[in-house]
Amino acid sequence: MKKLILGIGILSATLIFGKTIEITPKNAYQIKKLLKNAKPGDEIVFEDGIYKRIPKIKISGNKANPIVIRGGEKTLIKNPVFIKGDYLIIKNLYIKGNADKINYNQVIKEWWNPSNEIKKSGLYIEGRHVLVKDNVICNFPGSGLRIIKKSDYVTVKHNIVCNNAWWSTGGTGGLIVRNIIQSDNSKKDKIKILNNLIFSNESRIISHVYQKGFTKMVIDEGEGLLIQQKSDKDTIKNGHYNGGFLVKNNLLLYNGKAISINKANNVKIIKNTLYKNGTTVTGKAGGIVLNTTKNDIIRNNLIVPSKGKDAIRKFLAKNIIEKNNLISYEDRNIDLSSFEDMLRKYNLKVKPTNYKVNLKKQILDILKNIPKTDKTSFELEGNRLNIYNIDNKKIKALPKNYMLIIPKEYIKDVKAYLKL
Description:
Strand order of the largest sheet: 1-2-3-6-9-12-15-18-22-25-28-31
Number of helices: 6
Strand content: 35-45%
Radius of gyration: 22 Å
Shape: globular
CATH architecture of the largest domain: 3 Solenoid
Largest sheet: 12 strands, mixed
CATH topology of the largest domain: Pectate Lyase C-like
Number of strands: 35
Structural class: mainly beta
Helix content: under 10%
Distance between the termini: 73 Å
Protein backbone atom coordinates (compact mmCIF):
# COMPACT_ATOMS: atom_id res chain seq x y z
CA MET A 1 0.00 0.00 0.00
CA LYS A 2 1.45 3.33 -1.08
CA LYS A 3 0.62 6.54 0.65
CA LEU A 4 1.44 10.19 0.07
CA ILE A 5 2.79 11.84 3.19
CA LEU A 6 2.88 15.63 3.16
CA GLY A 7 3.95 18.20 5.70
CA ILE A 8 6.09 16.36 8.18
CA GLY A 9 6.00 19.47 10.36
CA ILE A 10 8.89 20.66 12.42
CA LEU A 11 11.22 17.93 11.15
CA SER A 12 10.85 18.34 7.39
CA ALA A 13 8.68 19.88 4.72
CA THR A 14 9.71 17.37 2.06
CA LEU A 15 7.12 15.74 -0.20
CA ILE A 16 7.83 12.01 -0.18
CA PHE A 17 6.30 8.66 -1.00
CA GLY A 18 6.37 5.97 1.68
CA LYS A 19 4.58 2.76 2.39
CA THR A 20 2.10 2.20 5.21
CA ILE A 21 2.84 -0.67 7.59
CA GLU A 22 -0.32 -1.81 9.32
CA ILE A 23 -0.13 -3.21 12.84
CA THR A 24 -3.17 -4.97 14.31
CA PRO A 25 -3.90 -6.50 17.73
CA LYS A 26 -3.41 -9.93 16.15
CA ASN A 27 -0.01 -9.32 14.58
CA ALA A 28 1.47 -6.83 17.06
CA TYR A 29 3.56 -9.54 18.72
CA GLN A 30 5.45 -9.82 15.40
CA ILE A 31 6.27 -6.11 15.26
CA LYS A 32 10.02 -6.67 14.98
CA LYS A 33 9.46 -8.80 11.87
CA LEU A 34 6.87 -6.40 10.45
CA LEU A 35 9.24 -3.44 10.76
CA LYS A 36 12.29 -5.27 9.45
CA ASN A 37 12.04 -3.66 6.01
CA ALA A 38 10.72 -0.27 7.13
CA LYS A 39 12.50 2.70 5.61
CA PRO A 40 12.62 6.46 6.19
CA GLY A 41 9.37 8.04 5.04
CA ASP A 42 7.21 5.05 5.97
CA GLU A 43 4.17 5.27 8.20
CA ILE A 44 3.46 2.70 10.91
CA VAL A 45 -0.22 2.58 11.83
CA PHE A 46 -1.69 0.82 14.83
CA GLU A 47 -5.10 -0.03 13.44
CA ASP A 48 -8.27 0.12 15.54
CA GLY A 49 -8.52 -2.38 18.35
CA ILE A 50 -7.27 -3.18 21.84
CA TYR A 51 -3.58 -3.95 22.24
CA LYS A 52 -2.61 -5.84 25.38
CA ARG A 53 1.12 -5.85 24.68
CA ILE A 54 3.44 -4.27 22.11
CA PRO A 55 7.10 -5.35 21.93
CA LYS A 56 9.76 -2.64 22.03
CA ILE A 57 9.94 -0.60 18.82
CA LYS A 58 13.40 0.24 17.45
CA ILE A 59 13.34 2.20 14.22
CA SER A 60 14.68 5.44 12.72
CA GLY A 61 13.93 7.74 9.84
CA ASN A 62 16.29 10.43 8.64
CA LYS A 63 16.36 14.22 8.51
CA ALA A 64 14.58 14.44 5.17
CA ASN A 65 12.18 11.57 5.73
CA PRO A 66 11.03 10.87 9.30
CA ILE A 67 9.05 7.77 10.12
CA VAL A 68 5.51 8.34 11.42
CA ILE A 69 4.09 6.09 14.15
CA ARG A 70 0.41 6.71 14.78
CA GLY A 71 -2.80 5.25 16.13
CA GLY A 72 -6.14 4.83 14.41
CA GLU A 73 -9.46 6.36 15.36
CA LYS A 74 -10.23 3.62 17.90
CA THR A 75 -6.82 2.36 18.95
CA LEU A 76 -6.35 1.50 22.64
CA ILE A 77 -3.01 0.29 24.00
CA LYS A 78 -3.27 -1.11 27.53
CA ASN A 79 0.38 -1.62 28.48
CA PRO A 80 3.64 0.35 28.32
CA VAL A 81 5.04 1.32 24.92
CA PHE A 82 8.81 1.64 24.36
CA ILE A 83 9.99 3.51 21.27
CA LYS A 84 13.66 3.99 20.48
CA GLY A 85 14.92 5.77 17.38
CA ASP A 86 15.74 9.04 15.68
CA TYR A 87 13.72 11.22 13.30
CA LEU A 88 10.30 10.01 14.39
CA ILE A 89 6.82 11.48 14.61
CA ILE A 90 4.69 9.73 17.24
CA LYS A 91 1.06 10.77 17.23
CA ASN A 92 -2.55 9.87 17.95
CA LEU A 93 -1.80 7.02 20.34
CA TYR A 94 -4.19 6.29 23.21
CA ILE A 95 -2.26 4.50 25.94
CA LYS A 96 -4.19 3.66 29.09
CA GLY A 97 -3.01 1.81 32.19
CA ASN A 98 -4.78 0.32 35.18
CA ALA A 99 -3.96 2.71 38.04
CA ASP A 100 -7.67 3.05 38.77
CA LYS A 101 -7.82 -0.72 39.43
CA ILE A 102 -5.00 -0.62 42.02
CA ASN A 103 -5.65 0.36 45.63
CA TYR A 104 -3.78 1.51 48.72
CA ASN A 105 -3.88 -1.84 50.53
CA GLN A 106 -2.25 -3.62 47.60
CA VAL A 107 0.54 -1.06 47.27
CA ILE A 108 1.35 -0.64 50.96
CA LYS A 109 1.90 -4.40 51.35
CA GLU A 110 4.46 -4.20 48.54
CA TRP A 111 6.10 -0.94 49.66
CA TRP A 112 9.42 -2.52 50.61
CA ASN A 113 9.57 -4.70 47.50
CA PRO A 114 7.19 -3.34 44.85
CA SER A 115 6.05 -5.52 41.97
CA ASN A 116 6.39 -4.50 38.34
CA GLU A 117 2.65 -3.95 38.23
CA ILE A 118 2.88 -0.77 40.31
CA LYS A 119 5.98 0.48 38.49
CA LYS A 120 4.48 0.61 35.01
CA SER A 121 4.73 3.80 32.98
CA GLY A 122 2.91 4.60 29.75
CA LEU A 123 5.16 5.75 26.92
CA TYR A 124 8.96 5.61 26.97
CA ILE A 125 10.82 7.64 24.33
CA GLU A 126 14.54 7.44 23.64
CA GLY A 127 15.63 9.24 20.52
CA ARG A 128 16.81 12.37 18.78
CA HIS A 129 14.79 14.63 16.51
CA VAL A 130 11.48 13.23 17.72
CA LEU A 131 8.05 14.88 17.69
CA VAL A 132 5.44 13.53 20.13
CA LYS A 133 2.02 15.05 19.46
CA ASP A 134 -1.71 14.56 19.97
CA ASN A 135 -1.37 11.47 22.17
CA VAL A 136 -3.36 10.61 25.29
CA ILE A 137 -1.46 8.81 28.06
CA CYS A 138 -3.31 8.16 31.29
CA ASN A 139 -3.94 5.92 34.27
CA PHE A 140 -0.48 4.44 34.80
CA PRO A 141 0.67 3.76 38.37
CA GLY A 142 4.10 5.08 37.35
CA SER A 143 4.77 8.00 35.05
CA GLY A 144 2.78 8.78 31.93
CA LEU A 145 5.35 9.91 29.36
CA ARG A 146 9.12 9.53 29.86
CA ILE A 147 11.87 11.10 27.74
CA ILE A 148 15.05 9.28 28.70
CA LYS A 149 18.70 8.38 28.01
CA LYS A 150 20.07 9.35 24.57
CA SER A 151 17.26 11.78 23.80
CA ASP A 152 17.82 15.20 22.27
CA TYR A 153 15.90 17.59 20.03
CA VAL A 154 12.56 16.27 21.29
CA THR A 155 9.31 18.23 21.02
CA VAL A 156 6.29 17.15 23.09
CA LYS A 157 3.28 19.03 21.77
CA HIS A 158 -0.48 19.00 22.36
CA ASN A 159 -0.72 15.76 24.33
CA ILE A 160 -2.97 14.90 27.27
CA VAL A 161 -1.12 13.32 30.21
CA CYS A 162 -3.41 12.58 33.13
CA ASN A 163 -4.10 10.41 36.17
CA ASN A 164 -0.60 8.93 36.36
CA ALA A 165 1.98 8.37 39.13
CA TRP A 166 -0.58 7.52 41.81
CA TRP A 167 0.99 4.34 43.13
CA SER A 168 4.68 4.49 42.31
CA THR A 169 6.97 3.88 45.29
CA GLY A 170 9.90 5.16 43.24
CA GLY A 171 8.71 8.75 43.00
CA THR A 172 7.64 10.04 39.60
CA GLY A 173 5.17 12.27 37.78
CA GLY A 174 3.07 12.70 34.66
CA LEU A 175 5.55 13.93 32.05
CA ILE A 176 9.21 13.19 32.83
CA VAL A 177 12.38 14.35 31.09
CA ARG A 178 15.14 12.56 32.94
CA ASN A 179 18.91 12.14 32.67
CA ILE A 180 19.11 12.77 28.95
CA ILE A 181 22.40 12.86 27.06
CA GLN A 182 23.15 15.55 24.51
CA SER A 183 23.98 14.80 20.89
CA ASP A 184 25.94 18.01 20.37
CA ASN A 185 27.11 21.09 22.27
CA SER A 186 24.37 23.42 21.05
CA LYS A 187 22.98 25.74 23.71
CA LYS A 188 19.71 26.46 21.94
CA ASP A 189 16.36 25.14 23.19
CA LYS A 190 16.37 21.47 22.20
CA ILE A 191 13.77 19.94 24.51
CA LYS A 192 10.41 21.61 23.98
CA ILE A 193 7.27 20.95 26.04
CA LEU A 194 4.52 22.90 24.29
CA ASN A 195 0.76 23.26 24.69
CA ASN A 196 0.08 20.06 26.63
CA LEU A 197 -2.77 19.37 29.05
CA ILE A 198 -1.33 17.73 32.17
CA PHE A 199 -3.74 17.01 35.01
CA SER A 200 -4.39 14.87 38.08
CA ASN A 201 -0.94 13.27 38.15
CA GLU A 202 -0.12 12.85 41.83
CA SER A 203 1.71 10.63 44.27
CA ARG A 204 -0.36 8.89 46.92
CA ILE A 205 2.45 6.83 48.43
CA ILE A 206 5.70 7.74 50.19
CA SER A 207 8.51 7.06 47.73
CA HIS A 208 11.96 5.59 48.34
CA VAL A 209 15.32 5.43 46.59
CA TYR A 210 17.23 2.79 48.52
CA GLN A 211 20.61 3.89 47.18
CA LYS A 212 20.34 7.03 49.32
CA GLY A 213 20.33 4.96 52.51
CA PHE A 214 17.27 6.73 53.94
CA THR A 215 13.68 7.71 53.17
CA LYS A 216 11.91 10.86 54.28
CA MET A 217 8.47 9.71 55.34
CA VAL A 218 6.58 12.36 53.43
CA ILE A 219 5.04 12.61 49.99
CA ASP A 220 7.27 14.86 47.91
CA GLU A 221 6.73 13.55 44.38
CA GLY A 222 3.86 13.48 41.90
CA GLU A 223 4.77 16.27 39.50
CA GLY A 224 2.81 17.22 36.44
CA LEU A 225 6.13 17.91 34.72
CA LEU A 226 9.56 16.92 36.03
CA ILE A 227 12.82 17.84 34.30
CA GLN A 228 15.70 16.18 36.12
CA GLN A 229 19.35 15.63 35.31
CA LYS A 230 22.09 13.88 37.21
CA SER A 231 24.67 16.08 38.87
CA ASP A 232 27.68 17.23 36.87
CA LYS A 233 29.78 14.74 38.81
CA ASP A 234 27.60 11.85 37.68
CA THR A 235 27.40 12.84 34.01
CA ILE A 236 30.95 13.97 33.33
CA LYS A 237 31.74 10.85 31.30
CA ASN A 238 28.80 11.50 28.94
CA GLY A 239 29.20 15.26 28.70
CA HIS A 240 27.02 17.86 30.38
CA TYR A 241 23.64 18.70 28.88
CA ASN A 242 24.27 22.22 27.63
CA GLY A 243 21.06 22.62 25.66
CA GLY A 244 17.99 24.54 26.80
CA PHE A 245 14.52 23.39 27.82
CA LEU A 246 11.45 25.35 26.70
CA VAL A 247 8.23 24.82 28.65
CA LYS A 248 5.55 26.99 27.08
CA ASN A 249 1.76 27.33 26.83
CA ASN A 250 0.99 24.21 28.89
CA LEU A 251 -1.99 23.68 31.17
CA LEU A 252 -1.08 21.96 34.45
CA LEU A 253 -4.06 21.35 36.73
CA TYR A 254 -4.67 19.39 39.95
CA ASN A 255 -1.26 17.67 40.06
CA GLY A 256 0.70 16.77 43.18
CA LYS A 257 3.21 19.39 42.11
CA ALA A 258 3.03 21.40 38.92
CA ILE A 259 6.56 21.81 37.53
CA SER A 260 9.78 20.64 39.18
CA ILE A 261 13.26 21.39 37.85
CA ASN A 262 15.98 19.35 39.53
CA LYS A 263 19.68 19.70 38.55
CA ALA A 264 18.73 20.82 35.04
CA ASN A 265 19.83 24.25 33.82
CA ASN A 266 18.76 26.74 31.15
CA VAL A 267 15.02 26.14 31.53
CA LYS A 268 12.49 28.63 30.17
CA ILE A 269 9.03 28.37 31.76
CA ILE A 270 6.83 30.78 29.81
CA LYS A 271 3.08 31.44 29.44
CA ASN A 272 1.90 28.34 31.25
CA THR A 273 -1.24 28.01 33.36
CA LEU A 274 -0.70 26.26 36.70
CA TYR A 275 -4.00 25.76 38.49
CA LYS A 276 -4.74 24.19 41.88
CA ASN A 277 -1.65 22.01 42.03
CA GLY A 278 -0.30 20.73 45.34
CA THR A 279 -2.99 18.10 45.77
CA THR A 280 -1.34 15.28 47.74
CA VAL A 281 2.17 16.55 48.34
CA THR A 282 3.38 17.12 51.89
CA GLY A 283 4.57 20.66 52.45
CA LYS A 284 4.21 23.88 50.50
CA ALA A 285 4.89 22.99 46.86
CA GLY A 286 1.98 24.04 44.69
CA GLY A 287 3.47 25.63 41.61
CA ILE A 288 7.04 25.73 40.32
CA VAL A 289 9.90 24.14 42.28
CA LEU A 290 13.49 24.98 41.32
CA ASN A 291 16.12 22.77 42.94
CA THR A 292 19.86 22.96 42.22
CA THR A 293 19.44 24.80 38.95
CA LYS A 294 20.75 27.94 37.26
CA ASN A 295 20.09 30.30 34.35
CA ASP A 296 16.31 29.75 34.25
CA ILE A 297 13.58 32.14 33.09
CA ILE A 298 10.13 32.11 34.72
CA ARG A 299 7.96 34.56 32.77
CA ASN A 300 4.31 35.38 32.03
CA ASN A 301 2.84 32.38 33.83
CA LEU A 302 -0.53 32.25 35.58
CA ILE A 303 -0.07 30.41 38.88
CA VAL A 304 -3.05 29.62 41.09
CA PRO A 305 -1.79 27.25 43.84
CA SER A 306 -4.00 25.19 46.10
CA LYS A 307 -4.79 26.77 49.44
CA GLY A 308 -1.74 26.96 51.70
CA LYS A 309 0.73 26.16 48.90
CA ASP A 310 3.44 28.36 47.40
CA ALA A 311 3.58 29.52 43.80
CA ILE A 312 7.36 29.36 43.36
CA ARG A 313 9.90 27.63 45.60
CA LYS A 314 13.68 27.80 45.10
CA PHE A 315 16.50 25.75 46.61
CA LEU A 316 20.11 26.31 45.51
CA ALA A 317 18.79 28.13 42.45
CA LYS A 318 21.09 30.70 40.84
CA ASN A 319 20.61 33.41 38.23
CA ILE A 320 16.84 32.98 38.00
CA ILE A 321 14.82 35.62 36.11
CA GLU A 322 11.21 35.99 37.25
CA LYS A 323 9.09 38.43 35.29
CA ASN A 324 5.39 39.23 34.76
CA ASN A 325 4.01 36.14 36.51
CA LEU A 326 0.46 36.47 37.80
CA ILE A 327 0.01 34.73 41.14
CA SER A 328 -3.50 34.40 42.50
CA TYR A 329 -5.48 32.25 44.92
CA GLU A 330 -8.86 32.97 43.31
CA ASP A 331 -10.86 30.34 41.44
CA ARG A 332 -10.83 30.75 37.68
CA ASN A 333 -12.30 29.23 34.57
CA ILE A 334 -9.53 27.57 32.58
CA ASP A 335 -9.81 27.55 28.79
CA LEU A 336 -9.66 23.93 27.63
CA SER A 337 -11.00 24.56 24.13
CA SER A 338 -7.80 23.37 22.45
CA PHE A 339 -8.40 19.91 23.94
CA GLU A 340 -12.19 19.67 23.78
CA ASP A 341 -12.29 17.14 20.96
CA MET A 342 -9.69 14.87 22.58
CA LEU A 343 -11.37 15.06 25.99
CA ARG A 344 -14.74 14.20 24.47
CA LYS A 345 -13.36 11.37 22.33
CA TYR A 346 -11.71 9.63 25.28
CA ASN A 347 -14.36 10.58 27.85
CA LEU A 348 -11.87 12.39 30.10
CA LYS A 349 -12.96 14.80 32.83
CA VAL A 350 -10.55 17.50 33.96
CA LYS A 351 -11.05 17.52 37.71
CA PRO A 352 -9.14 16.86 40.94
CA THR A 353 -9.13 13.31 42.26
CA ASN A 354 -9.80 14.57 45.82
CA TYR A 355 -7.72 11.71 47.18
CA LYS A 356 -6.92 12.15 50.88
CA VAL A 357 -3.56 10.93 52.14
CA ASN A 358 -3.45 9.62 55.74
CA LEU A 359 0.27 10.02 56.37
CA LYS A 360 0.18 8.68 59.94
CA LYS A 361 -1.54 5.46 58.88
CA GLN A 362 0.82 5.10 55.92
CA ILE A 363 3.94 5.38 58.10
CA LEU A 364 2.64 2.81 60.57
CA ASP A 365 1.60 0.46 57.75
CA ILE A 366 5.09 0.68 56.26
CA LEU A 367 6.57 -0.24 59.64
CA LYS A 368 4.12 -3.11 59.92
CA ASN A 369 5.32 -4.55 56.60
CA ILE A 370 9.09 -4.34 57.19
CA PRO A 371 10.71 -7.58 55.93
CA LYS A 372 12.19 -8.82 59.22
CA THR A 373 14.61 -11.41 60.42
CA ASP A 374 14.88 -12.69 63.98
CA LYS A 375 17.65 -10.10 64.43
CA THR A 376 15.76 -7.05 63.16
CA SER A 377 15.90 -4.17 65.64
CA PHE A 378 15.08 -0.47 65.85
CA GLU A 379 16.75 2.61 67.27
CA LEU A 380 15.14 6.06 67.32
CA GLU A 381 17.47 9.05 67.47
CA GLY A 382 15.45 12.25 67.35
CA ASN A 383 13.38 11.85 64.21
CA ARG A 384 15.69 9.25 62.67
CA LEU A 385 14.51 5.67 62.91
CA ASN A 386 17.38 3.26 62.28
CA ILE A 387 16.36 -0.24 61.25
CA TYR A 388 18.98 -2.96 61.58
CA ASN A 389 19.17 -6.43 60.01
CA ILE A 390 16.39 -6.11 57.45
CA ASP A 391 15.63 -9.24 55.43
CA ASN A 392 16.85 -7.78 52.13
CA LYS A 393 17.76 -10.96 50.24
CA LYS A 394 15.03 -10.55 47.62
CA ILE A 395 14.95 -6.76 47.51
CA LYS A 396 17.17 -5.04 44.97
CA ALA A 397 19.34 -2.18 46.32
CA LEU A 398 17.90 -2.27 49.85
CA PRO A 399 20.71 -2.18 52.42
CA LYS A 400 20.64 -4.48 55.41
CA ASN A 401 20.45 -1.40 57.64
CA TYR A 402 18.20 1.48 56.65
CA MET A 403 16.94 4.79 58.01
CA LEU A 404 13.46 6.31 57.99
CA ILE A 405 13.18 10.03 58.75
CA ILE A 406 9.91 10.55 60.63
CA PRO A 407 7.98 13.85 60.60
CA LYS A 408 8.02 15.33 64.10
CA GLU A 409 4.26 15.12 64.52
CA TYR A 410 4.33 11.32 64.16
CA ILE A 411 7.32 10.43 66.35
CA LYS A 412 5.11 9.60 69.35
CA ASP A 413 2.99 7.30 67.21
CA VAL A 414 6.07 5.48 65.91
CA LYS A 415 7.43 5.10 69.45
CA ALA A 416 4.16 3.68 70.64
CA TYR A 417 3.83 1.28 67.72
CA LEU A 418 7.38 -0.08 68.09
CA LYS A 419 7.24 0.08 71.89
CA LEU A 420 10.45 2.06 72.06
